Amino acid sequence: MKVDVLLGLQWGDEGKGKVVDVLTPNYDVVTRFQGGPNAGHTLEFNGEKYVLRSIPSGIFQGNNANIIGNGVVLDPVLFKAEAEALAASGHDLTKKLFISKKTHLILPTHRLLDAAYEASKGSDKVGTTGKGIGPTYTDKVSRNGLRIGDLLHNFDTKFAAAIARHEVILKSLNYQYDLKPLVKEWLEAVEYLKNFGLIDSEHVINNYLKEGKKVLAEGAQGTMLDIDFGSYPFVTSSNTICAGACTGLGIAPNKIGEVYGIFKAYCTRVGAGPFPTELFDETGEIICKNGNEYGSVTGRKRRCGWIDLVALKYAIMIDGVTKLIMMKSDVLDAFETIKACIAYKIDGEEVTEFPYEINDNIEPVYVELPGWKCDMTKMSDEDEFPEEFNAYLSFLEEELEVPIKIVSVGPDREQTVIRYREE
Ligand code: GDP
Ligand code: IMO
Ligand code: MG
User: Fold this and answer.
1) Measured in angstroms, how far is the CA atom of residue 312 from the centroid of ligand 3?
2) 156 is catalytic
3) Other C-beta atoms within 10 Å of 1: how many?
Protein backbone atom coordinates (compact mmCIF):
# COMPACT_ATOMS: atom_id res chain seq x y z
CA MET A 1 0.00 0.00 0.00
CA LYS A 2 0.93 3.63 -0.35
CA VAL A 3 0.47 6.70 1.81
CA ASP A 4 -2.13 9.21 0.58
CA VAL A 5 -1.26 12.79 1.43
CA LEU A 6 -3.71 15.63 2.04
CA LEU A 7 -2.24 19.11 2.10
CA GLY A 8 -3.08 22.79 1.79
CA LEU A 9 -2.25 24.52 -1.49
CA GLN A 10 -2.59 28.14 -0.33
CA TRP A 11 -1.49 30.00 2.81
CA GLY A 12 -3.06 27.57 5.29
CA ASP A 13 -6.56 27.27 6.81
CA GLU A 14 -7.98 25.73 3.64
CA GLY A 15 -10.13 23.30 5.67
CA LYS A 16 -7.71 20.38 5.98
CA GLY A 17 -9.07 19.24 9.34
CA LYS A 18 -12.64 19.03 8.09
CA VAL A 19 -11.73 16.92 5.06
CA VAL A 20 -9.35 14.60 6.93
CA ASP A 21 -12.23 13.85 9.30
CA VAL A 22 -14.53 13.18 6.32
CA LEU A 23 -11.98 10.83 4.69
CA THR A 24 -10.93 9.06 7.90
CA PRO A 25 -13.40 6.13 7.58
CA ASN A 26 -11.46 5.10 4.43
CA TYR A 27 -8.17 4.79 6.36
CA ASP A 28 -6.59 2.65 9.10
CA VAL A 29 -4.05 5.27 10.13
CA VAL A 30 -4.03 9.08 10.11
CA THR A 31 -0.76 10.86 10.73
CA ARG A 32 0.64 14.39 10.97
CA PHE A 33 4.05 14.89 9.36
CA GLN A 34 5.13 18.49 10.03
CA GLY A 35 4.24 21.69 11.83
CA GLY A 36 3.03 21.87 15.38
CA PRO A 37 0.57 23.88 17.45
CA ASN A 38 0.80 26.73 14.94
CA ALA A 39 -1.88 24.68 13.14
CA GLY A 40 -5.54 25.02 14.01
CA HIS A 41 -7.72 22.44 12.28
CA THR A 42 -11.44 22.90 12.81
CA LEU A 43 -13.95 20.04 12.69
CA GLU A 44 -17.71 20.32 13.06
CA PHE A 45 -20.16 17.46 13.42
CA ASN A 46 -23.25 16.56 15.47
CA GLY A 47 -23.54 20.21 16.53
CA GLU A 48 -20.07 20.13 18.14
CA LYS A 49 -16.97 22.07 17.12
CA TYR A 50 -13.38 21.01 17.81
CA VAL A 51 -10.10 22.77 17.01
CA LEU A 52 -7.08 20.47 16.82
CA ARG A 53 -3.54 21.80 16.97
CA SER A 54 -1.11 18.90 17.24
CA ILE A 55 -3.43 15.91 17.24
CA PRO A 56 -4.32 14.37 13.86
CA SER A 57 -7.87 14.99 12.62
CA GLY A 58 -8.54 11.25 12.37
CA ILE A 59 -9.33 10.77 16.05
CA PHE A 60 -13.09 11.15 15.89
CA GLN A 61 -14.11 8.43 13.47
CA GLY A 62 -13.59 4.69 13.96
CA ASN A 63 -10.79 2.93 15.79
CA ASN A 64 -7.92 3.81 13.53
CA ALA A 65 -4.46 4.66 14.84
CA ASN A 66 -3.35 8.28 14.86
CA ILE A 67 0.34 9.11 14.77
CA ILE A 68 2.26 12.32 15.42
CA GLY A 69 5.24 11.86 13.10
CA ASN A 70 8.92 12.71 13.51
CA GLY A 71 8.58 15.88 11.39
CA VAL A 72 6.22 17.49 13.91
CA VAL A 73 7.31 19.78 16.76
CA LEU A 74 5.32 19.24 19.94
CA ASP A 75 4.62 21.54 22.86
CA PRO A 76 3.82 19.28 25.85
CA VAL A 77 1.81 22.01 27.59
CA LEU A 78 -0.46 22.69 24.63
CA PHE A 79 -0.64 18.99 23.78
CA LYS A 80 -1.74 18.13 27.33
CA ALA A 81 -4.42 20.83 27.27
CA GLU A 82 -5.66 19.59 23.89
CA ALA A 83 -5.73 15.91 24.89
CA GLU A 84 -7.33 16.60 28.29
CA ALA A 85 -10.06 18.74 26.71
CA LEU A 86 -10.80 15.90 24.29
CA ALA A 87 -10.84 13.34 27.11
CA ALA A 88 -13.28 15.56 29.03
CA SER A 89 -15.60 15.53 26.03
CA GLY A 90 -15.50 11.72 25.89
CA HIS A 91 -12.59 11.17 23.49
CA ASP A 92 -9.89 9.25 25.32
CA LEU A 93 -6.85 9.12 23.07
CA THR A 94 -4.42 7.09 25.12
CA LYS A 95 -5.12 3.89 23.17
CA LYS A 96 -5.31 5.39 19.69
CA LEU A 97 -2.70 8.17 19.62
CA PHE A 98 1.01 7.44 19.18
CA ILE A 99 3.95 9.81 19.06
CA SER A 100 7.25 9.34 17.25
CA LYS A 101 10.27 9.23 19.53
CA LYS A 102 11.97 11.46 16.97
CA THR A 103 9.40 14.27 17.32
CA HIS A 104 11.13 17.43 18.55
CA LEU A 105 9.99 19.15 21.73
CA ILE A 106 9.05 22.81 21.90
CA LEU A 107 10.63 24.10 25.12
CA PRO A 108 9.23 27.04 27.09
CA THR A 109 12.24 29.09 25.99
CA HIS A 110 11.45 28.37 22.32
CA ARG A 111 8.19 30.24 22.75
CA LEU A 112 10.03 33.13 24.43
CA LEU A 113 12.61 33.18 21.64
CA ASP A 114 9.84 33.29 19.03
CA ALA A 115 8.42 36.38 20.73
CA ALA A 116 11.86 37.96 21.23
CA TYR A 117 12.89 37.49 17.58
CA GLU A 118 9.58 38.90 16.37
CA ALA A 119 9.93 41.93 18.67
CA SER A 120 13.47 42.52 17.41
CA LYS A 121 12.28 42.59 13.78
CA GLY A 122 10.04 45.63 14.27
CA SER A 123 7.95 46.31 11.16
CA ASP A 124 9.55 43.35 9.34
CA LYS A 125 7.99 40.80 11.68
CA VAL A 126 6.64 37.60 10.14
CA GLY A 127 3.51 37.62 12.27
CA THR A 128 4.17 34.13 13.62
CA THR A 129 1.65 32.28 15.75
CA GLY A 130 4.04 32.74 18.70
CA LYS A 131 4.18 29.02 19.40
CA GLY A 132 7.97 28.67 19.21
CA ILE A 133 7.92 26.92 15.83
CA GLY A 134 10.89 28.71 14.21
CA PRO A 135 13.26 28.41 17.20
CA THR A 136 12.40 24.71 17.67
CA TYR A 137 13.09 23.82 14.03
CA THR A 138 16.24 25.97 14.21
CA ASP A 139 17.49 23.85 17.12
CA LYS A 140 16.59 20.68 15.23
CA VAL A 141 18.58 21.69 12.17
CA SER A 142 21.53 23.02 14.19
CA ARG A 143 21.60 19.71 16.06
CA ASN A 144 20.67 21.20 19.41
CA GLY A 145 17.10 19.96 19.69
CA LEU A 146 15.46 17.73 22.28
CA ARG A 147 13.35 14.84 21.09
CA ILE A 148 10.57 12.91 22.78
CA GLY A 149 12.93 9.91 22.87
CA ASP A 150 15.28 11.95 25.06
CA LEU A 151 12.68 11.71 27.81
CA LEU A 152 13.84 8.14 28.25
CA HIS A 153 17.58 8.90 28.70
CA ASN A 154 19.41 11.54 30.74
CA PHE A 155 16.72 14.11 30.04
CA ASP A 156 17.34 16.56 32.91
CA THR A 157 20.90 17.37 31.83
CA LYS A 158 19.91 17.91 28.21
CA PHE A 159 16.95 20.08 29.23
CA ALA A 160 19.06 22.25 31.56
CA ALA A 161 21.73 22.74 28.89
CA ALA A 162 19.16 23.79 26.28
CA ILE A 163 17.46 26.25 28.63
CA ALA A 164 20.83 27.77 29.60
CA ARG A 165 21.76 28.22 25.94
CA HIS A 166 18.43 29.88 25.18
CA GLU A 167 18.72 32.21 28.16
CA VAL A 168 21.99 33.61 26.82
CA ILE A 169 20.20 34.54 23.58
CA LEU A 170 17.15 35.96 25.36
CA LYS A 171 19.36 38.16 27.50
CA SER A 172 21.32 39.36 24.47
CA LEU A 173 18.00 40.45 22.95
CA ASN A 174 17.09 42.29 26.18
CA TYR A 175 13.89 40.27 26.39
CA GLN A 176 12.08 40.34 29.74
CA TYR A 177 10.63 37.06 30.95
CA ASP A 178 9.71 34.97 33.95
CA LEU A 179 10.80 31.43 33.20
CA LYS A 180 10.16 29.65 36.49
CA PRO A 181 6.38 29.12 36.21
CA LEU A 182 6.76 28.17 32.55
CA VAL A 183 9.34 25.50 33.33
CA LYS A 184 7.22 24.08 36.16
CA GLU A 185 4.17 23.79 33.91
CA TRP A 186 6.29 22.33 31.09
CA LEU A 187 7.92 19.64 33.25
CA GLU A 188 4.52 18.53 34.54
CA ALA A 189 3.18 18.34 31.00
CA VAL A 190 6.14 16.40 29.67
CA GLU A 191 5.41 13.59 32.16
CA TYR A 192 1.88 13.40 30.73
CA LEU A 193 3.33 12.46 27.33
CA LYS A 194 4.35 9.10 28.81
CA ASN A 195 0.64 8.11 28.87
CA PHE A 196 0.86 7.68 25.12
CA GLY A 197 2.66 5.13 23.00
CA LEU A 198 6.07 6.62 22.17
CA ILE A 199 7.06 4.73 19.06
CA ASP A 200 9.59 4.33 16.25
CA SER A 201 6.98 5.62 13.86
CA GLU A 202 8.97 5.12 10.64
CA HIS A 203 9.03 1.36 11.33
CA VAL A 204 5.40 1.29 12.45
CA ILE A 205 4.15 3.14 9.37
CA ASN A 206 6.20 1.09 6.89
CA ASN A 207 5.04 -2.12 8.58
CA TYR A 208 1.44 -0.94 8.31
CA LEU A 209 1.97 -0.41 4.58
CA LYS A 210 3.42 -3.91 4.23
CA GLU A 211 0.34 -5.33 5.98
CA GLY A 212 -1.89 -3.59 3.43
CA LYS A 213 -3.17 -0.92 5.83
CA LYS A 214 -4.29 2.43 4.45
CA VAL A 215 -2.46 5.50 5.71
CA LEU A 216 -3.47 9.14 5.30
CA ALA A 217 -0.89 11.87 5.97
CA GLU A 218 -2.42 15.17 7.10
CA GLY A 219 -0.54 18.35 6.22
CA ALA A 220 -0.49 21.50 8.28
CA GLN A 221 -0.12 25.09 7.04
CA GLY A 222 -0.05 25.29 3.23
CA THR A 223 2.30 25.08 0.27
CA MET A 224 2.72 28.86 0.07
CA LEU A 225 4.03 28.79 3.66
CA ASP A 226 6.66 26.14 2.85
CA ILE A 227 10.16 26.99 4.07
CA ASP A 228 11.68 26.42 0.61
CA PHE A 229 8.92 27.27 -1.87
CA GLY A 230 6.64 29.63 0.06
CA SER A 231 6.81 33.41 0.10
CA TYR A 232 10.11 33.45 2.04
CA PRO A 233 10.80 34.82 4.64
CA PHE A 234 7.08 35.10 5.38
CA VAL A 235 6.70 31.36 5.80
CA THR A 236 6.67 28.74 8.51
CA SER A 237 9.77 26.70 9.35
CA SER A 238 8.92 23.28 7.95
CA ASN A 239 8.42 21.64 4.56
CA THR A 240 4.67 21.79 4.18
CA ILE A 241 4.83 20.32 0.67
CA CYS A 242 4.21 16.70 -0.28
CA ALA A 243 7.91 15.85 -0.01
CA GLY A 244 7.62 16.82 3.67
CA ALA A 245 5.53 13.69 4.19
CA CYS A 246 8.56 11.57 3.18
CA THR A 247 10.97 13.23 5.60
CA GLY A 248 8.33 13.83 8.26
CA LEU A 249 7.26 10.19 8.41
CA GLY A 250 10.18 8.19 7.04
CA ILE A 251 8.45 6.91 3.93
CA ALA A 252 10.13 6.62 0.55
CA PRO A 253 8.94 8.87 -2.34
CA ASN A 254 7.68 5.82 -4.27
CA LYS A 255 5.37 5.06 -1.33
CA ILE A 256 3.29 8.20 -1.94
CA GLY A 257 -0.13 7.40 -3.42
CA GLU A 258 -2.85 9.97 -4.03
CA VAL A 259 -2.02 13.58 -3.29
CA TYR A 260 -5.14 15.51 -2.27
CA GLY A 261 -4.61 19.23 -2.77
CA ILE A 262 -7.05 21.38 -0.89
CA PHE A 263 -7.92 25.02 -1.65
CA LYS A 264 -10.57 27.59 -0.85
CA ALA A 265 -12.79 28.91 -3.65
CA TYR A 266 -11.01 32.19 -2.90
CA CYS A 267 -7.84 32.93 -0.93
CA THR A 268 -6.85 33.95 2.60
CA ARG A 269 -3.67 34.63 4.48
CA VAL A 270 -2.99 35.33 8.16
CA GLY A 271 0.17 37.08 9.27
CA ALA A 272 2.48 39.26 7.20
CA GLY A 273 3.80 38.67 3.68
CA PRO A 274 2.90 39.11 0.04
CA PHE A 275 -0.59 38.28 -1.20
CA PRO A 276 -1.08 39.44 -4.81
CA THR A 277 -4.88 39.04 -4.97
CA GLU A 278 -5.62 40.57 -1.57
CA LEU A 279 -8.75 42.74 -1.52
CA PHE A 280 -8.83 45.92 0.54
CA ASP A 281 -12.40 46.82 -0.38
CA GLU A 282 -15.94 45.86 0.56
CA THR A 283 -15.69 42.59 -1.40
CA GLY A 284 -12.81 41.51 0.85
CA GLU A 285 -14.87 42.42 3.91
CA ILE A 286 -17.83 40.37 2.65
CA ILE A 287 -15.63 37.32 2.06
CA CYS A 288 -14.14 37.73 5.55
CA LYS A 289 -17.56 38.04 7.15
CA ASN A 290 -19.30 35.27 5.20
CA GLY A 291 -16.31 32.94 5.54
CA ASN A 292 -15.83 33.80 9.22
CA GLU A 293 -12.18 34.32 8.39
CA TYR A 294 -10.60 34.59 11.82
CA GLY A 295 -7.64 32.42 12.87
CA SER A 296 -8.67 29.32 14.81
CA VAL A 297 -5.49 29.53 16.95
CA THR A 298 -4.80 33.25 17.32
CA GLY A 299 -8.24 34.70 16.48
CA ARG A 300 -6.47 37.08 14.09
CA LYS A 301 -8.49 38.43 11.18
CA ARG A 302 -7.46 36.67 7.98
CA ARG A 303 -6.67 38.75 4.92
CA CYS A 304 -9.00 37.81 2.02
CA GLY A 305 -8.79 37.94 -1.77
CA TRP A 306 -9.80 36.24 -5.02
CA ILE A 307 -8.44 32.87 -6.00
CA ASP A 308 -4.88 33.01 -7.35
CA LEU A 309 -4.34 30.42 -10.08
CA VAL A 310 -0.71 31.40 -10.64
CA ALA A 311 0.10 30.43 -7.04
CA LEU A 312 -2.25 27.44 -7.14
CA LYS A 313 -0.64 25.98 -10.28
CA TYR A 314 2.76 26.39 -8.66
CA ALA A 315 1.57 24.51 -5.56
CA ILE A 316 0.04 21.73 -7.67
CA MET A 317 3.34 21.34 -9.55
CA ILE A 318 5.49 21.23 -6.40
CA ASP A 319 3.15 18.82 -4.61
CA GLY A 320 2.27 16.52 -7.53
CA VAL A 321 -1.43 16.86 -6.74
CA THR A 322 -3.60 14.09 -8.21
CA LYS A 323 -7.00 15.17 -6.84
CA LEU A 324 -8.32 18.58 -5.88
CA ILE A 325 -10.71 19.51 -3.09
CA MET A 326 -12.47 22.87 -3.18
CA MET A 327 -13.61 24.34 0.13
CA LYS A 328 -15.90 27.15 1.24
CA SER A 329 -17.87 27.32 -2.01
CA ASP A 330 -20.85 28.69 -0.06
CA VAL A 331 -18.87 31.78 0.96
CA LEU A 332 -19.14 33.08 -2.62
CA ASP A 333 -22.91 32.45 -2.84
CA ALA A 334 -23.80 36.16 -2.70
CA PHE A 335 -21.64 37.48 -5.52
CA GLU A 336 -22.97 38.55 -8.95
CA THR A 337 -19.56 37.79 -10.45
CA ILE A 338 -16.46 35.98 -9.24
CA LYS A 339 -12.90 36.79 -10.20
CA ALA A 340 -9.97 34.44 -10.71
CA CYS A 341 -6.38 35.61 -11.18
CA ILE A 342 -4.86 33.87 -14.22
CA ALA A 343 -1.60 35.84 -14.54
CA TYR A 344 0.49 38.55 -12.89
CA LYS A 345 1.40 41.75 -14.71
CA ILE A 346 4.96 42.66 -13.72
CA ASP A 347 6.55 45.75 -15.29
CA GLY A 348 4.01 45.63 -18.12
CA GLU A 349 4.57 41.94 -18.89
CA GLU A 350 2.16 39.10 -18.17
CA VAL A 351 3.70 36.27 -16.15
CA THR A 352 2.03 32.92 -15.50
CA GLU A 353 4.88 31.19 -13.66
CA PHE A 354 5.01 32.03 -9.95
CA PRO A 355 8.00 34.41 -9.72
CA TYR A 356 10.94 34.52 -7.29
CA GLU A 357 10.01 37.92 -6.01
CA ILE A 358 6.50 38.81 -4.94
CA ASN A 359 6.16 42.51 -4.21
CA ASP A 360 3.92 45.53 -4.78
CA ASN A 361 4.89 45.58 -8.49
CA ILE A 362 2.51 42.73 -9.16
CA GLU A 363 -0.86 43.50 -10.68
CA PRO A 364 -3.18 40.49 -10.87
CA VAL A 365 -4.81 39.79 -14.25
CA TYR A 366 -8.36 38.58 -13.65
CA VAL A 367 -11.04 36.77 -15.58
CA GLU A 368 -14.58 37.32 -14.38
CA LEU A 369 -17.12 34.52 -14.17
CA PRO A 370 -20.83 34.66 -13.38
CA GLY A 371 -21.76 33.95 -9.74
CA TRP A 372 -24.34 31.31 -8.83
CA LYS A 373 -26.38 33.51 -6.49
CA CYS A 374 -28.00 30.70 -4.54
CA ASP A 375 -27.60 28.92 -1.22
CA MET A 376 -25.10 26.07 -1.64
CA THR A 377 -25.11 25.01 2.01
CA LYS A 378 -27.94 22.47 1.74
CA MET A 379 -26.63 20.73 -1.36
CA SER A 380 -25.58 17.12 -0.92
CA ASP A 381 -25.26 15.92 -4.50
CA GLU A 382 -23.47 17.33 -7.52
CA ASP A 383 -26.67 17.07 -9.54
CA GLU A 384 -28.03 19.93 -7.42
CA PHE A 385 -25.22 22.29 -8.40
CA PRO A 386 -26.34 25.33 -10.39
CA GLU A 387 -25.04 25.79 -13.93
CA GLU A 388 -22.80 28.75 -12.97
CA PHE A 389 -21.17 26.76 -10.18
CA ASN A 390 -20.46 23.87 -12.54
CA ALA A 391 -18.99 26.39 -14.97
CA TYR A 392 -16.67 27.68 -12.20
CA LEU A 393 -15.55 24.11 -11.43
CA SER A 394 -14.95 23.33 -15.13
CA PHE A 395 -13.00 26.55 -15.57
CA LEU A 396 -10.76 25.69 -12.60
CA GLU A 397 -10.25 22.09 -13.75
CA GLU A 398 -9.26 23.25 -17.21
CA GLU A 399 -6.81 25.82 -15.82
CA LEU A 400 -5.35 23.56 -13.14
CA GLU A 401 -5.40 20.31 -15.14
CA VAL A 402 -6.42 18.24 -12.11
CA PRO A 403 -9.97 17.02 -11.33
CA ILE A 404 -11.88 18.51 -8.41
CA LYS A 405 -13.18 15.44 -6.57
CA ILE A 406 -14.67 16.93 -3.43
CA VAL A 407 -16.58 20.17 -2.93
CA SER A 408 -17.30 21.58 0.51
CA VAL A 409 -20.42 23.71 0.99
CA GLY A 410 -20.31 24.42 4.73
CA PRO A 411 -18.24 23.73 7.87
CA ASP A 412 -20.13 20.60 8.95
CA ARG A 413 -18.89 17.10 8.14
CA GLU A 414 -22.17 16.50 6.30
CA GLN A 415 -21.77 19.55 4.07
CA THR A 416 -19.44 17.73 1.75
CA VAL A 417 -20.18 16.69 -1.83
CA ILE A 418 -18.18 13.93 -3.49
CA ARG A 419 -18.06 14.28 -7.28
CA TYR A 420 -18.34 10.94 -9.05
CA ARG A 421 -18.74 12.19 -12.61
CA GLU A 422 -15.94 11.15 -14.94
CA GLU A 423 -13.70 14.01 -15.82
P1 GDP B 1 -7.36 24.02 8.40
O2 GDP B 1 -6.33 24.68 9.24
O3 GDP B 1 -6.92 23.84 6.98
O4 GDP B 1 -7.89 22.76 9.00
O5 GDP B 1 -8.58 25.06 8.34
P6 GDP B 1 -9.18 25.91 9.58
O7 GDP B 1 -9.97 25.00 10.43
O8 GDP B 1 -8.13 26.73 10.22
O9 GDP B 1 -10.08 26.94 8.80
C10 GDP B 1 -11.14 26.54 7.99
C11 GDP B 1 -12.43 27.15 8.55
O12 GDP B 1 -13.45 27.06 7.59
C13 GDP B 1 -12.95 26.44 9.77
O14 GDP B 1 -13.59 27.37 10.61
C15 GDP B 1 -13.97 25.45 9.20
O16 GDP B 1 -14.99 25.12 10.13
C17 GDP B 1 -14.53 26.26 8.07
N18 GDP B 1 -14.97 25.51 6.88
C19 GDP B 1 -14.45 24.39 6.35
N20 GDP B 1 -15.08 24.08 5.20
C21 GDP B 1 -16.02 25.03 5.02
C22 GDP B 1 -16.99 25.29 4.01
O23 GDP B 1 -17.10 24.57 3.00
N24 GDP B 1 -17.79 26.39 4.16
C25 GDP B 1 -17.69 27.21 5.23
N26 GDP B 1 -18.51 28.26 5.30
N27 GDP B 1 -16.79 27.01 6.20
C28 GDP B 1 -15.97 25.94 6.09
P1 IMO C 1 -3.06 25.54 9.56
O2 IMO C 1 -2.48 24.17 9.70
C3 IMO C 1 -2.42 29.75 8.51
C4 IMO C 1 1.54 31.42 9.44
C5 IMO C 1 1.62 32.48 10.52
C6 IMO C 1 2.82 33.27 10.02
C7 IMO C 1 3.73 32.19 9.45
C8 IMO C 1 4.81 31.70 10.41
O9 IMO C 1 -4.15 25.83 10.53
O10 IMO C 1 -3.43 25.82 8.14
P11 IMO C 1 4.82 30.17 12.57
O12 IMO C 1 4.10 30.31 13.87
O13 IMO C 1 4.55 28.90 11.84
O14 IMO C 1 6.29 30.42 12.71
O15 IMO C 1 4.26 31.38 11.66
O16 IMO C 1 2.89 31.10 9.12
N17 IMO C 1 0.89 30.14 9.84
C18 IMO C 1 -0.33 29.78 9.46
N19 IMO C 1 -1.26 30.43 8.73
N20 IMO C 1 -2.65 28.49 8.94
C21 IMO C 1 -1.72 27.82 9.65
O22 IMO C 1 -1.85 26.52 10.00
C23 IMO C 1 -0.50 28.47 9.98
N24 IMO C 1 0.58 28.12 10.68
C25 IMO C 1 1.44 29.14 10.57
O26 IMO C 1 0.46 33.24 10.57
O27 IMO C 1 2.43 34.12 8.97
MG1 MG D 1 -6.09 26.39 10.42
Assistant:
1) 18
2) no
3) 14
